[in-house]
Specification:
The mean pLDDT is about 95. The chain has helices at about 1-15, 75-80, 90, 110-115, 130-135, 150-165, 215-220, 230-245, 260; strands spanning about 20-35, 50-60, 65, 105, 125-130, 165-170, 175-180, 180-185, 195-200, 205-210, 250-255, 265, 270. It is of the alpha/beta class. Strands 6-5-4-3-2-1-13-12 form an 8-stranded mixed beta sheet. Strands 7-8-9-10-11 form a 5-stranded mixed beta sheet, with helices on one face. The chain has a domain at about 20-185 and about 255-270: Metallo-beta-lactamase, Chain A, CATH 3.60.15.
Length: about 270
């Protein structure tokens, strides 16, 4: 009986230790006229869509966690149509935080518009999939490697932060990073991209570019992946995201402007949860 009571007591402590997190989407730029065919595999190549660039702020348990960091390097403004831009370190001011208030950064994947701001938050620990780090700091730049959309300066900064003791590796699928926040892999947007489930009442999934748009769900079409061979895995991951939340309405895609119709902006910030 004492053993049962002890087990129940420990379970209660574990439940109590899981914060009820808040989630906010912070708009850092608009991307008018992007090619839908690059976001929704199989869509007409000449169809255009207005997209958004977003970072997500998760708060609770004494942590201010950024899921992705946006970008700021000049070269990307020359390659993409980017409007209404505000630097990530300024965008979080709309949520009442300063750059030094960010305790943790979780990187969904190493592309320029998601990892490009890791040097802007001076006290944050950076969390990234171990295999993502290993690939993009090594084989990606060798003959036969793939580093499209990866900024060499971002990679150098990631290595510098690792040397400074500020990088932590997430090793694989279904890993709890913080109490009630778990990382999942398998969608293969990049070599080892990850997405997050934030547990609460209810649960939410922050998909980042593992799902670009709500239309990916509605039309059952994959997002862009590391290779075309990964399309089936991306579709399986989409199904899994819905299972993890209980509703497609609680999965937040990476670049869909519709998230700000579902969750209206106040300034640059939308309350998701």
């Amino acid at each position: 009986m004492k053993t049962v009571l002890l087990a129940l007591g420990l379970a209660s402590l574990c439940i109590a230790a899981t914060p009820e997190y808040s989630i906010q989407a912070i708009l850092i730029a608009n991307g008018p006229g992007d090619s839908l065919g690059q976001l929704l595999i199989g869509a007409p190549k000449d169809e255009k869509i207005d997209t958004v660039y977003v970072i997500w702020l998760v708060r609770g348990g004494g942590r201010n966690i950024l899921f992705d960091t946006g970008f700021h390097r000049d070269r990307w403004f020359k390659q993409w149509t980017i409007k209404d831009y505000i630097p990530p370190q300024d965008a979080i001011l709309f949520a009442g935080l300063k750059p030094e208030d960010i305790t943790d950064i979780v990187i969904s994947h190493a592309h320029w518009d998601h990892m490009g701001g890791i040097d802007l938050f001076p006290k944050a620990t950076v969390w990234i999939q171990k295999d993502e780090y290993a690939y993009y700091t090594g084989p990606a730049w060798q003959p036969g490697g793939h580093h499209g959309g990866i900024d060499a300066d971002d990679v150098a900064e990631l290595v510098r932060l690792n040397l400074a003791g500020r990088v932590r590796f997430v090793n694989g699928d279904d890993v709890e990073i913080f109490p009630g926040i778990r990382a999942y892999t398998g969608a293969r947007h990049t070599f080892a991209s990850q997405y997050l489930r934030v547990e609460g009442h209810p649960n939410y999934v922050l998909a980042s570019d593992n799902v670009y748009l709500y239309r990916n769900f509605a039309e059952h079409k994959p997002s862009a992946t590391f290779s075309p061979a990964d399309y089936p895995d991306n579709l399986k991951a989409q199904e899994r995201m819905i299972e993890l939340t209980g509703s497609v309405d609680r999965v937040i895609p990476g670049h869909d402007a519709l998230q700000f119709q579902k969750f209206p902006l106040e300034g640059r910030v939308a309350k998701i949860k």
